[in-house]
Design a protein that fits this description.
alpha/beta, 5-stranded parallel β-sheet, 9 helices, 233 residues, Rossmann fold, globular
Length: 233
């Protein structure tokens, strides 16, 4: 029996594409901010290629929002709701999700435009760590594993947005990520891109247009390579 064809008089937006495979082992959700959210040539696609080579037969879902904060709704138009309010919807409620890679916290420490407008303040290390710990607890209640990514060096961006005070907060958060047992594991993106001569800066050859914080294609490959695909089983 032929399918009925209907013409719609409205414009629709595509929100998700779900592809079912009988040999699929589930999905890895990459939950992130602008370090992952901009552009098509990004480490999630490279990670998907690595998983396919195993072959692991895992799907990769990119749930990244530019300007996203763990603790508060963004004060800038494209930032959207805080991580804590969108985590269930965008990560845990995907039917095939078995693992989440969390790359968040940058924008809580470097509030940039928000600080310039004096509408907010930099989060403390204890606040960011508390937010990450909370996400780990929520993931584990759903039976989903949480892998957290270390925050990458950003001292090269303009000083009105970032200073040694924020750098100390970033380092404290990373120390917690590397040492805690409240998450399933970590992926050390910082070590993949850090300038060995200036450990608070990103390696210049890995920066996108001298941004001081965003990575170019070579940096994206470093991120993808830092993910241990064996942890997914």
């Amino acid at each position: 029996m032929a399918s009925e064809v209907k013409t719609l008089d409205t414009t629709c937006s595509l929100n998700d594409v779900h592809i079912e495979r009988k040999d699929s082992r589930g999905a890895v959700v990459i939950f992130a901010d602008a370090m992952t959210g901009k552009g098509a040539w990004k480490w999630p696609a490279l990670l998907a290629e690595r998983l396919a080579e195993q072959p692991k037969n895992y799907g990769v879902i990119k749930a990244a929002v530019r300007g996203n904060h763990v603790l508060r709704d963004s004060q800038i138009p494209y930032g959207g709701p805080r991580v804590r309010s969108r985590f269930d919807r965008d990560a845990l409620e995907h039917s095939d999700a078995g693992s989440v890679i969390l790359f968040e916290g940058h924008d809580d420490i470097v509030v940039a435009v928000v600080n310039v407008l004096k509408q907010s303040r930099t989060a403390s290390s204890a606040e960011v760590i508390g937010g990450l710990r909370h996400l780990g607890e929520r993931s584990h209640r759903r039976g989903i594993k949480l892998y957290v990514v270390t925050s990458t060096p950003i001292l090269a961006i303009p000083s009105k947005y970032y200073s040694s005070e924020e750098e100390n907060i970033r380092r404290a958060v990373n120390q917690w990520i590397l040492g805690t047992h409240q998450i399933d594991d970590y992926f050390d993106f910082e070590m993949g891109v850090v300038d060995k001569e200036r450990p608070t800066w990103m390696t210049p050859e890995l920066e996108w247009r001298d941004s001081g914080s965003d990575t170019n294609n070579a940096g994206e490959r470093r991120f993808a390579a830092a993910v241990d695909v064996l942890v997914f089983g």
